Amino acid sequence: MNGAEALVRTLLAGGVDTCFANPGTSEMHFVAALDRFPAMRCVLGLFEGVVTGAADGYARMAEKPAATLLHLGPGLANGLANLHNARRAMTPMVNVVGDHATHHRIHDAPLASDVIGVATPFSHWVRMGESADTISADGAAAIAAALEPPGRIATLVLPADTAWTDPKDPTIHAVPPVPARPAVDAAKIADAVRRIRAGGASVGLMLNGAAMRAGPLDLAGRIKAATGCRIFAPTSNGRTERGAGRFAVERVPYVVDMALETLKDVRTLILVGARAPVAFFAYPGKPSVVTPPDCEIVPLADLHEDLTGTLEALVEALGAGRTAPPLQSFAPPPLPGAYDAITPEGLAAAVAALLPEGAIVVDEGITGGRRFMPGTVAARPHDWLNLTGGAIGDGLPMAVGAAIARPDRPVVVLQADGSAMYTNQGLWTMAREGLNVTVVLLNNRSYATLVGELANVGAKNAGPTALGMFSLDRPAIDWCQMARSMGVEAVRPETMGDFARAFVEGTSGKGPLLIDVPI
Ligand SMILES: Cc1ncc(C[n+]2csc(CCOP(=O)(O)OP(=O)(O)O)c2C)c(N)n1
Ligand SMILES: [Mg+2]
After folding, report:
1. What letter does residue 467 receive in the DSSP assignment?
2. How far is it, in rounded angstroms, from Cα 333 to Cα 340?
3. What are phi and psi of 250, to 5 degrees?
4. What is the pTM of this model?
5. Among 56, 11, 15, which residue's Cα sits nearest to residue 402?
6. 158, 349, 389, 505: least buried by Cβ within 10 Å?
7. Vertex 512 angle, CA 87 and 474, to 5°
8. Mean pLDDT over residues 83-90, rounded?
9. Burial level of 339, CB count in 10 A (0-12/13-18/19+)?
10. CA nearest 98: which of 51, 146, 160, 44?
11. How much is the pLDDT for 298?
């Protein structure tokens, strides 16, 4: 048994049985070890952004980390943007980054770089696996670091000689104990209860992370029903359980003026696993903080603390246990007419009406996607995965990962065209793995949001050169050909009826389908 095999065995023993990979020479021993361990499912991504994004989507749905296998500093660097999104989603992940053999370092060979330096800003835990003798302990520590609440990015560097050398001691280390989510102080709960009782609708609870699941949301709904307070969530959330039978939160809008309007009557904002809301970007003359100046921010539970327990304690103290929460009932909008032209409103209505129960929706719809989230609030129960870190190019990869984590559930990805071009290689992995993914490609042949942002930031005198930076129609991208070239079936609907048929077909579980929707 060499170091690479010890690491694979450690990962499997620690419950990490899926590895998204884009390997090179320095990772060959890890790759070779995979054949001896069929329990480790290894999935090839043709760009590292697909690898890290898939590991993000996987963990959001599997509720445990995947491993990634990346090639030295440059391979890791290619995957950083989606590592950033994963970090913002509080996704647990174990990155294994191959590196040159330790004795090769002094030669500064072409692929040498400061891997630790590349990893550090995007990882919570980083370690150089210096020796085969310690690599199993390092692997187990990496899993523990990833599992630490609320979910963390752990990056373990695996020098080639650590991988190919046999450890003196073949012990496979178990994952050290992971701290449980600590309970929130009774005094803080009592303080929050006083504020909720006194403030009614001027008090908001801001939820995030683990509080966005059906159980804790139900508790939040009871608190709202019993006290009249409001329940909010940030613009982007890693995973939200929503739709019929669930309690719907008020999401803080992306657009600053809309966020200000949503929060204008809130005088006390109690944070339950969330940060105080701020604007995505600064704009001249607009505030960065979107709560009113006289709104008091009350941190109740931190991201890593026991959010469900906190809500339970509030329900108990407020006597809200017997108050029925206001849950959504299934109320789909009417389907557009079969011969109607495709419109954003029609698309949102069709998806809301046709979304199958248990679907996983990955949302990288950007401007063309804004209508889908409100429209689906009363759709059949489903999960919604947002782009959490604002780094576009996460949609197709996350869909890959989510589909691998939950093969029993259809995945729908609402995917803007410009963002899709960052990681279009994700389509190939969908075809190769036969994944149950329907890509709704929102094709406006443009970086439409940036046209609006140009005006929002007050940039003056934008001419054809500036506007040319936002147009994707010279030449237009043929998404059907692109999908087919990577083995994914594709259709381009001309009417709402065409779209509805394709959507039903796509979500029926026959492998990936791309619907190239002109918007
Ligand atoms: C990694 C990264 N690079 C660049 C950007 C800046 N950016 C934000 S939105 C956008 C274009 C989005 O275009 P598209 O995905 O087609 O959505 P649309 O605006 O057309 O709805 C770009 C380039 C970003 N957010 N992240
Ligand atoms: Mg676009």
Report:
1. H
2. 15
3. -90, 120
4. 0.97
5. 56
6. 505
7. 80
8. 98
9. exposed
10. 160
11. 98
> Ligand 2: distance of its center to the CA of 308 in Å?
38
Q: Which residue has the tokens 């809008």?
A: 253
Tokens of 195: 């504020």
Q: Which two tokens stand for residue 90?
A: 């509080």
Other CB atoms within 10 A of residue 434 CB: 13
pLDDT tens digits along 179-193 = 999 999 999 999 999
**What is the tens place of the pLDDT at every residue in 464-515?**
999 999 999 999 999 999 999 999 999 999 999 999 999 999 999 989 999 9
Residues in the chain, overall count: 519
Q: Which residue among 48, 52, 419, 445 has the greatest number of ligand 1 atoms within 8 angstroms of its CB, and so is best to mutate?
A: 419
Query: In the numeric block, which tokens belong to residue 404?
Result: 């691998």
Contacts of residues 110-118 at CB distance under 8 Å and 24 or more positions apart, as own/partner, are 111/24, 111/26, 111/71, 111/72, 111/73, 111/74, 112/72, 112/73, 113/72, 113/73, 113/74, 114/73, 115/72, 115/73, 115/76, 115/157, 116/157, 117/73, 118/73, 118/76, 118/77, 118/80
Partners of 489 in beta bridges: 513
Q: Ligand 1 centroid vs 249 CA: distance in angstroms?
A: 26
Contact between 339 and 495 (Cβ < 8 Å)? yes
Distance CA 363, CA 30 (A): 33
Could you give the C-alpha distances from 297 to 65, 113, 178, 265, in angstroms and in order? 33, 43, 30, 14
Beta-carbon contacts of 380 under 8 Å, excluding residues fewer than 6 positions away, are: 243, 244, 330, 355, 356, 357, 358, 359
For the record, the structure tokens of 504 come out as 């039903």
Does the beta carbon of 387 sit less than 6 angstroms from any atom of ligand 1?
A: no
Q: How far is the CA of 174 from the centre of ligand 2 (A)?
A: 47
* Token digits of residue 1: 């048994």
Where would I find the H helices in 381-434? 395-405, 417-420, 426-432
**CA 490 – CA 485 distance, rounded (Å):** 10
Please report, in angstroms and rounded to a whole number, the separation of the first and last CA atoms in the chain. Answer: 56
Q: Name residue 498's amino acid.
A: D
